[in-house]
Amino acid sequence: MNCLLCHSPYNPIASWRQLLFLEDVDVLCPRCRSSFLFIDGRLCETCGRPLDEAASSPCTDCLRWQEDEQWGGVAVKNRSVYVYNDWMKEVVALWKFRGDYAIVNAFRRPFVRAFHRSFGREWHIVPIPLSPERLYERGFNQAEALARLLPFPSFPWLARKHSEKQSKKSRRERLETDNPFFLSAHPPINGKRIVLVDDIYTTGITVRHAARVLLEAGAAEVGALTLVRA
């Protein structure tokens, strides 16, 4: 078969586990798979940032969020799967900005494992939405594509107003952005634990904006599962 990313032919070696549990073979060749860098080891208990042994948790960035008058009450536990290294930047650009939807299948197993490790069946999955204009431009919502990898249903409980792309904004501009999210119709949120799904966690403002809307609508707790931690 051919690798989903580099398109080089390779022969996947089926393990006994794959044969016994009918697991799909890896869609990536070993070289492409090994180019991703997993997040592991000691993490910030809030944002999931990798920490060295001397660093405190929560990290200094999360402490600033907690002490902020506007955002101190919007606590979001984020967990991410991969580091945003140069290889991941190339893959995200190919997937997200050049419309190669099938690339999401390369992330299935690690994304599902991360969901079970940090969240679980009692959490309701809500993908971060795109505005209608951005969805038309891109052709698909990468957060919805990731949510579909998970073994439970996802819920379109949020909608989004159109605005300039986050990737074009500086950190300060991102933090000063008005909340683009609002509830879609009248979802049954009260008392529920909700995990937001998105592709990249950068400053954390996107998931906090979304979490604020959900918490104000009565959600008991909001977390986030993201593919990449920048």
From TrEMBL:
Every Phosphoribosyltransferase domain range: 138-229
Gene Ontology molecular functions: glycosyltransferase activity
Family: Belongs to the ComF/GntX family.
Protein name in UniProt: Phosphoribosyltransferase
PANTHER family, per database record: DNA UTILIZATION PROTEIN YHGH
UniProt cross-references to SUPFAM superfamilies, sorted A to Z: PRTase-like
Position of the signal peptide: none
The organism's place on the tree of life at top rank: Bacteria
Keywords: Glycosyltransferase, Transferase
Double zinc ribbon domain mapped to chain residues: 3-63
Highest classification ranks of the organism: Bacteria, Bacillati, Bacillota, Bacilli, Bacillales
